Automatic annotation (TrEMBL), chains A, B:
Residues 306-404 form the D-serine dehydratase-like domain. CDD domains: PLPDE_III_cryptic_DSD (cd06818). Gene3D superfamilies: Alanine racemase, D-serine dehydratase-like domain. PANTHER family: D-SERINE DEAMINASE (PTHR28004:SF8), ZGC:162816-RELATED (PTHR28004). The keyword Coiled coil does not apply. It comes from the Bacteria. The lineage of its organism: Bacteria, Pseudomonadati, Pseudomonadota, Gammaproteobacteria, Orbales. This is Amino acid deaminase.
Amino acid sequence: MKNQLISGKLDHKAAAMSHSTDGQINILNEDVCLPVVVIKEQILDNNIRWMQDYTNACQVSLAPHGKTTMTPAIFKKQLQAGAWGIGVGTAYQAKIAIESGITNIIMANQLIGKANMLFVSKLKQQSNTKIFCCVDNKGNALQLSTHFAAQEQTMNVLLELGIEGGRCGCRSESEAIELAKYIHSLPGLKLSGVEFYEGVIHSQNELTDIDKINGFLTRVINTSNNLIKLNLFPDSEEVILTGAGSVWYDLVCQQMQQANLGQNIRYVIRPGCYVTQDKGVYQQSHNALKNRSELACHIQGDLASAMELCAFVQSMPEPDLAIIGFGKRDAAFDEGLPQPIAHYRHGQAMPFVTGTMKTQNIMDQHAMLHYSKDVDLQVGDILIFGTSHPCITFDKWRQLYFVDGQYNVLEAVETYF
Amino acid sequence: MKNQLISGKLDHKAAAMSHSTDGQINILNEDVCLPVVVIKEQILDNNIRWMQDYTNACQVSLAPHGKTTMTPAIFKKQLQAGAWGIGVGTAYQAKIAIESGITNIIMANQLIGKANMLFVSKLKQQSNTKIFCCVDNKGNALQLSTHFAAQEQTMNVLLELGIEGGRCGCRSESEAIELAKYIHSLPGLKLSGVEFYEGVIHSQNELTDIDKINGFLTRVINTSNNLIKLNLFPDSEEVILTGAGSVWYDLVCQQMQQANLGQNIRYVIRPGCYVTQDKGVYQQSHNALKNRSELACHIQGDLASAMELCAFVQSMPEPDLAIIGFGKRDAAFDEGLPQPIAHYRHGQAMPFVTGTMKTQNIMDQHAMLHYSKDVDLQVGDILIFGTSHPCITFDKWRQLYFVDGQYNVLEAVETYF
C-alpha cells in the first residue's frame, strides 16, 4: 500500500511525498501535500458498526446512503458489517455501488431521460444487482415502462410519497393509489414498495418537526397498508418500505416497528452522514436524537467525527489574523465553516484551547482564521479542522487517506463523484 | 472523438449513451446522462480572444488564473491565443499546467510544507517551465531557501503585498523591504518580482472600492520602485509585477501602464473567471467594468456566459413547484443559484419568458423551482440554467462537454481538480 501511494504520488492534489526510510507516510510529518482530508479509520469502523447495531436492534434493514461518500472502500465496509444494500441518488452512483459488490440498490430518486434509463438498462444487463428507483408521476412511469419493456427488462419501482412544501413524492393518498394502479398496469414496471424522505422537514422547532414527521409517517404507513390491501404489489416478492436520512431515523424506526404491515415487508432505512458524522450539523442532530432515543444511548461506543481537514498556517499578515491554506475547493462551507480542533508544530501537539481560534471567512483556496493573543501560532504549523456536512467535503476529493490516531496513513482510497 | 465518448460512456456521471446512427451526441436529444455542465465552445473562444485583445491593448501580459477551470484543453486555448503563462493556487495545479505545455507559472500563493516543496522540486527537475511562488514571511522564506538549496535548485519568488483586512501579503513598505532584503540574502531563492491581489476588496460601494484599490496599487508601485532602486532584483532577468483578478483588472492595467518602472519589468494580470464568464456575480462585475472602461466597450465581441447547466424536470408535486434534477453536487450555489435561461421538450425549444421560473432552493441532488401558471412544464422537460461563480461549478465535474449552439457535443474534456 505504501509503495502504491508513493508511485502514484503526483497524481492528485494530496500527493504523498514521503522522504522517510521506513516508508511510513504521516500527515503531521508533512509527508503529504496539504490541505488534505483524512478519515480516522477506527472511528469510521465504529460508526459503521454502531448504526448496524442500531438497525439490528430495531429489526429494520440498512441501506446507507452511498451518495454521502461515493467511496467503494467505505461501501464494502458497510456491506461487511451487515448492510442490506446501498442508497444512491443517480444511475451513475448505482454503477459505482454495483462495482463495489452491493446486491440491493435503492435509487432514492426518479429515473428521468433516455440516457439515464439506458444507463440503468446496461447495469441490469451486466449484473444481478437488484435496482429500485422511485416514481411519483404517470408520465415518467409510462416512459420508464416503454423503455424497459422495449429492452425486455422489468424495472423495480417504489412509489414515492412526499410532504407539502417538501421535495418529490405524491402529496395525497388518492394520487398515490391512482399512480400505483397505473404502474401496476404497465408491462415494463414492477411496483416493489413505497419510498419516502422525511429529512426535508427540518425547522428550528424540534417538537413541531416531530409532530409533522409522525403525521407524515402515519400517512405513509396507512397508504402502504391500503396498497397492500388492493393487491398492488406482487405476491411472490417482499415489499420494500424505505425512508429515513441521518436526522430522524429514530422516529422512522419506531414507526416501522409498530407498523404491522405483514410478514412480507422489508423495512429499510437510508442514513448516510452517520458514517463519518461531523463536528457541525450532524453532531447537533445526533445529540438531539440521543435525547429522544434511549436505544441510541445504549448502543456501545457512540458516533463520532471521523473526517478531519489538515491544513497549514500559510500567512500571518496581521496580529490576530492567520490565513490558512484551504478553501471552498477543499471542504464543505454551506452548513458552517471548518473549525480548528488541534494544533501541531514539527509533528508535536501544541497546547490547544477550544474557542481561541475561529475560522471566520472562506475563499476558494484560503480561509481566514482569527485567534487570541495567547495562541502561539507560526507559519508552517498544521491545524486540524472538524467539518460540517460531510457529503460536500467528500465531493471535493478524488482520493482520501484513512489514518490511525497518530495520523499515519493506513490506506489511500478513491472517491467516484 | 465521438467514438471516444461512447467507449468511455459509463465512466463518469455525465455518461454519453447515444442511440443515434450518425454518432452525433446531442444534449437536447437526451444522449447524455443529465444533469450535465456544458461549455459553449464558440463563446469560450470569443472570451479567450477578448481578454487577450484587452491585455494586448494595455501592453500587459496575461496569465489567466488556471484554478478557475483546471482544464488543460482550456489552458491550451489560452496559451494559443497568446497568454504568457498560467496562474495557479497550489503545487498540484502547477503540475497540471506544466503538463498542458505552459512555460511560465505564477503560483499566486505561498508554498508551505515539506511535501509541497518537494513536489515543486520534482516539477522543476522534470521540466523547463519557470515557476514563481509568493513569499510574505521570513520563516517561510528561510524554509524555502533551505529546501531548494539542499536540492541544488533556486526558487523564483515574488514578494506578496497585501492590504489591511485582506488576505496574505506584507501590509507595510518597511516590512516588505526588510523581507526583500532577507530573501536577497538567502542562497536558495531568487527575488523575481512583486505580487498582489486586489480582488479581496469588494464591498457594496464601488466608488469606495475604487479609491481603496487605487491607493493599494499606488503603494504596490511605490514599493516596487523602491525595491528596484535598492537593487534587490537580479539585473539579468526581467522583473515581474503581477496582480488582478476578474473584477478590477481595468484599474490594475491602467496603473500598470502609468507605472514607469523601467524597461525590465513584465506586467502580468491574472483574471480567471472571464473565460466562461457567468450569469451571476461575474456578469455584474463585467457590466460595472464596462461602465468604467472605454477600452472594454471597444474590444470586438463581448464576454458572455459560456457555461450552462442542463437538467431534467424530475417531479412536479405541487401546482407551482417543480423539483429539478441537479443540486449542490453539480453547480456552484455560493454566489446565487443557477437560474433557468431556456426550456426544451423532445429536443424542441419551448416558449421561455424570463422571470416566469425561479430556482429558490437547493439540496445535494435536487433544486426547487417555482414557476408561474402560464408555464407549460412537464416531467422530463430539459431546462438550461445559467450559473454564478464558475470556479466552483468546474470543481464539480471530472469531465465537461464542449458543445455548439445546438448542443451537439464537440468534445469531452477532462478537469483535474
